[in-house]
Structure formats: structure tokens, C-alpha cells
Design goal:
With about 450 residues, the chain is of the alpha/beta class. It contains 18 helices and 16 strands. Helix 15 packs across helix 16. It starts with a strand and ends with a helix. The structure holds pyridoxal-5'-phosphate. Pyridoxal-5'-phosphate binds next to helix 6.
């Protein structure tokens, strides 16, 4: 299996390079040049497999010859040992034919653990083999950064660097970010938005200052993050009727990677017949699905803060698929998006996407109502991000006979203060005030300060 950049088929890489990279050198994202396709019969036969063996079936075509079979199986076994539930990702029924797929049984209680735990093990494996060092870099609103810090904590050959919006990270996440070991983690509070942080990370990849230390992207701009999520769709579908029964998913827009992974899972043979995207008031993706008008905009703060941004990197991979791998067309679209902040795709491709995808923008009030109503009717507590998905699933599902699964993004424990205020959860024990100095603050675009800090790492 080889990989290419979404912006140029001439930029090629093998799996190992993809794992150990951020963006492709032309600013595009790495994508597999082709996809494995499984038959319904074959997929159904996987129903009895433990999670790590299912993961191996789904992932091994993407890994190819890069890792010997026994090593990859060992890495996967170890990865899912980090999750605290026998099923790894259990389904919880919330209504007739409606479910929440709990993706929050990992070490940081967020769905990003699936990407981070696997990526850290793959990075460790390859860096060991090459005797190389790396810095794992990314932007975060809190959650992805914490998942990466946890996952890469035991990877000796790497350090972690996070950029976060100075006023965009919830207090408790900030405490945790600031608690990170300064010898292993560089954190910068950027005087700007999450989107500004992402742009700085992209620029840093283009002009990486360290000659002998690699830069690796830690969020799902890295293909590993997508690959880890494809497995989740197979897992959920297999619990609810094997490879033949249609299934729908509702996905809170905390990143577009999950949507893209669902789309890819369908192309690989899973009978997914609907994907619903839920946003909050920051509805860039909803406007894209609804009107084919995607635009960069200022983020508003909401009760679902991990969805408070407007630039979704994985949209580029999705557009590349819709355009039949036309790298020139993708490059032109992304160049124009970078200058104008606006993106519309060809109508026929948008209609093609609409065959599968619906969307809905949920207000804070609706989110709160959904949490309290579900608790009242079932006793089940969900976090505000998941709540947007549960509501959108109920309002927009196309078929009542098709099981509808909402991705449960975060454990309710991560929103304990809000949920306690609603009376659906016990009040959290407040942590002792141990704020250990704010990490360094920097202006938007100040890569010099970052380069100096990197040189001292
Ligand atoms: C996870 C993710 C985000 C969101 O980051 P958080 O720190 O979890 O808010 C944004 N973009 C990409 C590509 C991601 O994978």
C-alpha cells in the first residue's frame, strides 16, 4: 500500500513515513492510493472477533509490509489494553433502535484516545527501529492535546508540543495541560483561536527548524487517526447485525475525521446508509452540508467547546475522494480556500455527498434539554457533545428500521461541573488549586519563539 498527497499524486509515501509525518511536503494530507474492499460475507464472519483482531483485519491492508504480522498484532493488543471496558467501545441503548457508541473508556476518557494510543505505539515502534527522535506536534482545544500527552508519555524517543488558544480551553483541561511534565511537554498558549493554532502548526511543518529530529502530527491530520476510527464503524455494525444489515451514524462535529472515516468504512464495504453531522452554533459544517457553502469564521463559545472551531482538516481528504482523486482540483480548491476563506464544491459532488450525509446545528438550549430529557426518561447521562448527536439522530434519521448509532465522544465525567448543575450527576470534588504557572504565551504567527524553545528541548 502506498500513500499520496491530496494535492499531488507525485508526492508519495509509504506507511512508515505517513506515521512519522505531519502534513505532506506540499501542504496536502496523506491518503491511501487505494482502499481495500471486504465482502458482506467476510465482514459478517468477523462478528466473533475480539476488538484487537477486528482492528487487525481492517488495518492490515493499510499497513501492508511495513510491519511484520506478529508485531502489528502485538501492537494492537497492547493498544486496546489501555481501554477500561471488556467491549472496548460498548453500545448503550437510548431508545428503540437508537444507540450511543461509548468511545470514552480510554485513559483520558475521550474518543481521541483511539487515535492517540495507537499512534504512540506505532511511532515508538518505528523510531526504535530507526534510532531516531521526534517531536509530536499539534493544535488543541484541550482534549486531543491531553490524549496525545498521555499516549506519548511512555514513548522515550519523542517529546510533545501543543499549541492551544489562550482563551479557548476549559479551566479543568487547562489545569491538566499545565500539569504536564515540562521535560517532556512544550505547551504554548496562543493569543488567537484554535484555527490560528492549526495554521501555525501547518506552517511549522513547512519550515521545521530541527535537522535531526522529526516533526510528527498528533491529531487526525495523520492518517493513523483516521485508520483507528474506521475500525469503530466496523465494530459497531458487527454488534448490530453483521456486514449485511444497514446502519446509520450520528456524529458530533468535534473533528471531520470521524465523518471521513465513516465514509471510508462505507467504501470498504460496510452498509452505512446515513451519516448525520451535528454541530453546535459554530455551524461551518452544517452550512457545507446544507448549502454547499463552507466558510472560515470566528468561533463562539458554547456548552460543547470541543466543537468550537470552523476549519476541519479532514474535509480535504473527503473532497479528494468525491473528486475521484483529482489532485489538481483539490489543490485549486484548497488554494482558494486559503485566500478567500470560502469553499464550495462542484454541485454533482455535493449531491453525491448529500446522498449519504445530513446535518443539523444544535443550540446550547437544545443540548441542555436533550441531556435532561434523556436522563429523566432513561437515567443515562451523556456529555454535551454527544447530546448534540443524539438529538440530531432523532430529528434527522431517514429510516426507523435502520439502527442509528450516535458516537459518544467524551465521558460525562469530563463535563462534571455542567452536568452537576443540571442535576443529572453528583457534583465533582473540586481539585486543589495547584496552578503551576501559565505556559508561555505567544502571538499568532510567532514561530521564532517556538523554534528557540525547540532548540532547547
Ligand atoms: C481532534 C481534532 C480536532 C479537535 O481538537 P480538540 O483538541 O480535541 O478540540 C481538530 N482537528 C483535527 C484534525 C482533529 O483530529
Amino acid at each position: 500500500m502506498h500513500y499520496v498527497s491530496t494535492r499531488s499524486a507525485a508526492v508519495r509515501a509509504d506507511f512508515e513515513t505517513v506515521v512519522l509525518s505531519g502534513l505532506a511536503e506540499d501542504g496536502g494530507l496523506y491518503v491511501p492510493a487505494s482502499l481495500p474492499v471486504f465482502s458482506a460475507q467476510e465482514v459478517t464472519y468477523w462478528s466473533w472477533l475480539p476488538f484487537d483482531e477486528l482492528a487487525w483485519r481492517v488495518m492490515s491492508p493499510f499497513v501492508g509490509q511495513a510491519i511484520p504480522e506478529d508485531d502489528l498484532k502485538g501492537l494492537l493488543k497492547d493498544t486496546y489494553r489501555a481501554f477500561g471496558h471488556r467491549s472496548i467501545a460498548p453500545l448503550h441503548q437510548v431508545d428503540r433502535n437508537e444507540w450511543v457508541l461509548e468511545l470514552f473508556h480510554g485513559p483520558t476518557r475521550a474518543s481521541k484516545d483511539f487515535a492517540a494510543q495507537l499512534h504512540a505505539r506505532l511511532v515508538s515502534y518505528f523510531l526504535d527501529r530507526r534510532q531516531q527522535q521526534a517531536v509530536v506536534v499539534g493544535a488543541t482545544n484541550g482534549d486531543t492535546g491531553l490524549a496525545a500527552i498521555e499516549a506519548f508519555g511512555s514513548c522515550e524517543q519523542s517529546r510533545v508540543m501543543v499549541l492551544y488558544p489562550r482563551n479557548g480551553v476549559p479551566e479543568d483541561r487547562l489545569d491538566e495541560l499545565q500539569d504536564a511534565d515540562p521535560a517532556r511537554v512544550l505547551a504554548f498558549a496562543v493569543d488567537g483561536s484554535f484555527d490560528d493554532c492549526q495554521a501555525m502548526v501547518a506552517q511549522l511543518f513547512r519550515q521545521w527548524p530541527l535537522a535531526n529530529v522529526r516533526a510528527i502530527g498528533f491529531n487526525s491530520t495523520n492518517w493513523v487517526g483516521v485508520m483507528a476510527q474506521i475500525v469503530l464503524y466496523f465494530h459497531a455494525a458487527l454488534q448490530l447485525g453483521g456486514g449485511v444489515r444497514p446502519i446509520g451514524f450520528s456524529i458530533p462535529a468535534a473533528s471531520f475525521a470521524e465523518v471521513y472515516a465513516g465514509y471510508i468504512a462505507q467504501k470498504m464495504g460496510l452498509p452505512i446508509n446515513q451519516i448525520i453531522i451535528s454541530t453546535n452554533r459554530n455551524d461551518a459544517l452544517h452550512q457545507f452540508v446544507h448549502k454547499n457553502q463552507y466558510s472560515k469564521r470566528q468561533a463562539n463559545r458554547t456548552v460543547s467547546p470541543a466543537m468550537d472551531f470552523s476549519i476541519f482538516s479532514n474535509l480535504e481528504r473527503f473532497v479528494w475522494e468525491l473528486y475521484g482523486h483529482d489532485d489538481q482540483a483539490v489543490r485549486a480548491l484548497m488554494d482558494s480556500f486559503e485566500t478567500t476563506g470560502e469553499l464550495s464544491i462542484a454541485n454533482k459532488h455535493w449531491l453525491q455527498a448529500r446522498m449519504l450525509i445530513d446535518s443539523y446545528a444544535v443550540t446550547d438550549e437544545q443540548t441542555i434539554d436533550e441531556i435532561t430529557a434523556l436522563f429523566r426518561d432513561t437515567g443515562y447521562v451523556i456529555d454535551p457533545h454527544t447530546a448534540t448527536g443524539v438529538l440530531a439522530a432523532r430529528l434527522y434519521r431517514r429510516s426507523m428500521v435502520t439502527p442509528m448509532v450516535t458516537l459518544g465522544e467524551f465521558s460525562p465525567v469530563k463535563s462534571a461541573a455542567l452536568l452537576a448543575g443540571l442535576g443529572v450527576m453528583a457534583a465533582p470534588v473540586s481539585a486543589p488549586g495547584r496552578r503551576a504557572g501559565h505556559p508561555q504565551s505567544i502571538r499568532v504567527g510567532d514561530l521564532d519563539t517556538i523554534a528557540r524553545a525547540l532548540a532547547e528541548l
